[in-house]
Amino acid sequence: MAQRHVASQPYPWPFDGDLRPENTALLAIDMQTDFCGKGGYVDSMGYDISMTRAPIEPLRLVFESFRKQGFHIIHTREGHKPSLADCPANKRWRSRQIGAGIGDPGPCGRVLVRGEPGWNLIPELQPTEAEEVIDKPGKGSFVATDLDLILKQKHVKNLILTGITTDVCVGTTMREANDLGYECLLLSDCTAATDYGNYMATLKTMQQAGGVFGCVAAAADLLKAIGEKVPFAIEESLSDVDLGDGLRVKMPKARDQWMPTSLAETMVAPQMGTKKGFVQADPYLWPFDGQLRKENTALLSINFQKSVFDPEGDFAKSNMQEVLQKSAEVLQMMRFKGFPVLHIRTGQAKDLSDTSRRAAWRHVSQTPRRPGPLGRLVRGDPGWDFVPLMAALPKEAVVEKPTIGAFSFTSLELHLQSLDVRNLVIIGLPTDVCVHTTMRQANDRGYECILLSDCTAAAFSETYYSALKQIKMQHGVFGAVADSTALLEVLGEYGLSHEAAPDRPSAPLNPGVNVEPDSKRLRSAK
């Protein structure tokens, strides 16, 4: 069969031109009453649901064409068991702070509970009997679900992402899918968010560095690629937008001209008042339950590697020396007070055998010889090693990751379970890529997360600020944000490391032993 490509950014999708009904699936994420219906979860939080309803018409047209040609369509629904046994305590607490408590009564039944009216998919986009529906308890569609198994059984390689919201559930799912080796395309007019700036920043983040998470296109581009006629009204509704830094996107015409998320919108605004054991963070005092102890809290230090600090690399415009100094202060204090520290390091095998076909292609053709974390990092090369200030001590665990998220194909979760850790203090780079993906993964697994804003950086200022904003929306949908000073002040109240519980190990593995990627699971993702 001849190659077929969608006219997408930053490269024609899919990368290998193998676009067929048999190997391609469309994922319609959370088109539920709770997210785009009157009286649902999003409406109850006070957001404008006209924004989340905007994708309905273009998505309906894509459904029609895909069903006619035999492409796979899979739907997801976010919701919890009636018992709420699968709802983390911090998630329910945050939802109650904004008047839309998960499990509480609402206009559409109990909020985000399976079987309630608000949990149902909207009438305009109902699935057929042949289409799978995935019920998920978190933001990502792969955590605690059988989605990956279903896609593999159907021999799907290409994944088209649609639904709501772009910056939360859709973005999280695309990050997960990319780590699992799927070739991803995000349809700009078949997705939406409650915050237009975050929507735009997500479109930019997904395609930066030669398509770090995949590509972006409009529904019209996809329909043309599969030989379908595109209604004039759909094409007329699109405009070509310059995202800056050489990135562009075709998307619905904006109601207002987009401006990069400003520093004023995202500066950490600590909660007023003080409580012992809480960090002064935004949007709430962290951790939510005040249980900040050496026995349940760990530091995740992500990608403090020599190539990241290359003056010719992705972060040349960022104040990297200040980030490094602030991060080193946090690292030293947490060590001094006896908190466990886990170091995360990105790297691939020299032959890219631990990398998906799409990622290997991007490393070679899209980002050749690039310095920095978004290009190729080879395990064992000088640039792959830690910078001296942030190097691991012999008893500290080092988790080697071959993909973006620190939970993908690694033993990080086993480490945390062995330490009985529930709270994660996160520092590292880049904010919008590896750090954000890891924080989203941790949040879906029930960890209570805080990101230190002056201990992280990104290649683009607007995606850095938007990343901070995305964490804090909906009263901390992914956790909280603070600066390092706020954390250090609280740590100063604790005793020295010798006061920690004597039966708590510094790491669950032998001293100096690195955690290598899970090669068996990696092979299955290719």
UniProtKB/TrEMBL annotation:
KW Ribosomal protein (keyword) present: no
Signal sequence bounds: none
Keyword set, alphabetical order: Hydrolase
Pfam family, one: Isochorismatase
Biased amino acid composition, Basic and acidic residues: 517-526
Chain segments carrying region Disordered: 500-526
Domain Isochorismatase-like intervals: 24-213, 297-481
Family designation: Belongs to the isochorismatase family.
The protein's name: Isochorismatase-like domain-containing protein
Organism lineage string: Eukaryota, Sar, Alveolata, Dinophyceae, Suessiales
